[in-house]
Amino acid sequence: MTPLYEDNHIIIVNKAPGEIVQGDKTGDKPLSEIIKEYLKVKYDKPGNVFCGVVHRIDRPVGGTVIFARTSKALSRLNEMLRKGEIHKTYWALVEGSPAEDSGRLEDWLVSDGRINKTFLASQDTKDARHSVLEYRVLARGIKYSLLEINLITGRKHQIRAQLSAMGHPIKGDLKYGAKRSNPDGGISLLARRIQFVHPVSKANIDVTAPPFPDMEKVMA
Questions:
Q1: Residue 155 near residue 100, CB atoms below 8 Å
Q2: CA distance 4 to 194
Q3: Could you give the CA distance from residue 194 to residue 70 in angstroms, rounded to a whole number?
Q4: 170 DSSP assignment
Q5: Which residues are CB-contacts of 85 (< 8 A; sequence separation ≥ 6)?
Q6: How far apart are CA 44 and CA 91, in angstroms?
Q7: What pLDDT, in 10s, does the model give residues 33-70?
Q8: How is residue 220 annotated by DSSP?
Q9: Is the pTM of the predicted complex or chain greater than 0.90?
Q10: Which end of the chain is more exposed for a tag (fewer CB within 10 A), N or C?
Q11: Which residues pair with residue 189 across a beta bridge?
């Protein structure tokens, strides 16, 4: 966890692949608790420290995550998220090379919570949700290509499932068809950039996480 931006109301951190945003059945310490400890020490705060979870990204994914330092910021950010006023851009290093330099993927997705996986489905499938993303190719290597992803909808495992169905699974993502795992157990999907209007000050917030080393190699 590396802080990328912080003020009195919010903190944005660079989550490492493998870290969890919120507590789960694994019992591993989540980022929300790590940030509380960080804030307590940095600002010498007595008693409990507030740290509200605004949104989550999958455990094997890295990059920008927003947390709220006040209840006012949390409620406003939750409303902004619901209205689609928080814009997230992802980078994905995928196997192979897409035929087009850019494109739009529209599918119907359904998630199976028992195995924590999302599948493409027909429109009339029960609980299927319309899922849309846009992509453009930033760089092409011998084995991998780097894509920039603009999420139009935010479904569970959407990017992972749609890119896999396109024939270009994300590097290291064994669950969705990658040939081999990454050494750190994560996948090469990065929440690269997050943009929104500050819920209290109304300033424009634009925060970017650094690319993974394997992404830099393709860009070189």
A1: no
A2: 11
A3: 19
A4: B
A5: 196, 197
A6: 36
A7: 999 999 999 988 888 899 999 999 999 999 999 999 99
A8: -
A9: yes
A10: C
A11: 92
